[in-house]
Amino acid sequence: MSTLDQDLASQIERLRAEGCEIIRSEKVSGASRDGRGELEIVLQFLRSGDELVVARLDRLGRDTRDVLNIIHECESRGAFVTVLDPHVTTRGEMGHVILTVLGMVAQMERRFIKERQKDGIERAKASGRYLGGKRRIDRHVVRELLAQGQSVAAAARTLGCSRMQIYRIIGEAPPAV
């Protein structure tokens, strides 16, 4: 069981302990709302008097604007938002202020993480230790499929990737012999 799975299990346990009856989860970054289908479903089903409960603010979003937009959407439906860690709710005016500040802190923390990551990559590159990300698609297999007459779309379907990835591989310099 991975750390992410353990974290999810502890969050679910905490939500159940708080009396949450319906729990939805997704394993995507909270950095933006793109691809967050479960969040969209929850927001669509919220009704007046409902409460959206999240274990931590960063589970709701890491961008202040997104967090505030989500809270606004909940409130426009007559629902409340409660964050368990630290325990803050939008049921009172002070909760809005605290959530706004916490959202700003979460966004700032995300920027710091990205800066540290960028600095680490630059140091690793300078010392010759950075090899880049792991390649997910075997370039040789792509070239073989195309040489056999498969279209780019067919090769992408076969490999379970996008056509754009195939086009990028086609555009790469041929391997050194």
UniProtKB/TrEMBL annotation:
Keywords: DNA integration, DNA recombination, DNA-binding. The active site is at residue 2. It comes from Hansschlegelia beijingensis. InterPro entries: Recombinase_CS (IPR006118), Resolv_N (IPR006119), Resolvase-like_N_sf (IPR036162), Resolvase_HTH_dom (IPR006120), SSR_resolvase (IPR050639). The keyword DNA-binding applies. Residues 1-128 form the Resolvase/invertase-type recombinase catalytic domain. One of its GO terms (biological process) is DNA integration. Gene3D superfamilies: Homeodomain-like, Resolvase, N-terminal catalytic domain. One of its GO terms (molecular function) is DNA binding. Belongs to the site-specific recombinase resolvase family. This is DNA invertase Pin-like site-specific DNA recombinase. Pfam families: HTH_7, Resolvase. PROSITE patterns: RECOMBINASES_2 (PS00398), RECOMBINASES_3 (PS51736).
